[in-house]
Specification:
By secondary structure, the chain is mostly helical. 73% of the residues lie in helices and 0% in strands. The protein has one domain. The protein contains three helices and no strands. The relative contact order is 0.16.
Length: 100
């Protein structure tokens, strides 16, 4: 069941994962900024967490409340979100498409 504690955990893990991914991707201390890092990390946590659950990757790492597995899943998921965003932007640039 979803609880407030779960939400706080996802925000913390998302912020950590998004900040790490942002720092690595931009090679700067601030990454993309506080809110974009948080959004990226939360999206990455959902994508990465789902993939880790689906493929049962490193199940022993989930023994901690905010586990290393969750942070790693958020970082890897964040990179997948960044790759999808990059691909979308490149496609929109080449085709003149996009949302606007």
């Amino acid at each position: 069941m979803f609880t407030l504690a779960n939400l706080v955990t996802w925000i913390v893990v998302g912020l950590i994962g998004g900040t790490l991914a942002g720092r690595i991707a931009t090679r700067s201390k601030a990454g993309f900024g506080l809110m974009p890092n948080l959004a990226l990390g939360c999206a990455g946590a959902i994508v990465g967490g789902g993939l880790f659950e689906l493929f049962n990757l490193w199940p022993a790492l989930d023994k901690v409340a905010i586990s290393a597995r969750d942070v790693l899943a958020a970082v890897l998921g964040s990179f997948l979100v960044l790759a999808a965003r990059w691909a979308w932007m490149r496609w929109a640039e080449e085709t003149g498409g996009g949302l606007g």
